[in-house]
Write a structure and sequence with these properties.
123 residues, mainly beta, seven-stranded mixed sheet, four-stranded antiparallel sheet
Length: 123
Amino acid sequence: QVQLVESGGGLVQPGGSLRLSCAASGSIFSIITMAWYRQAPGKERELVASISRVGNPNYADSVKGRFTISRDNAKNTVYLQMNSLKPEDTAVYYCNGVSGATIATMAPIFGSWGQGTQVTVSS
């Protein structure tokens, strides 16, 4: 059973930056694609960025050019650097492993989600 622990969220003004971290347990981390999802109030959870086991990133159009995903396989950790934040980025952010080839077709592979980390962008 993989455990996922997200951290790094907070309250930030529009245009500001945050760096999220997701620590995963288990030896499987280094061989799977990892992703960040977010869920805003009243909306479905959406995938915003993924990174392959060798470090190839993919981004949803809504965050492209502003967010950067990275990973450290030695630490079983995936990161999301978020710059130029907008109020519409406000959501709870989660990580998970994913299968699939594109942002549109990827699906989470771990049935148990972490608690997420709240990101609020507001002046």
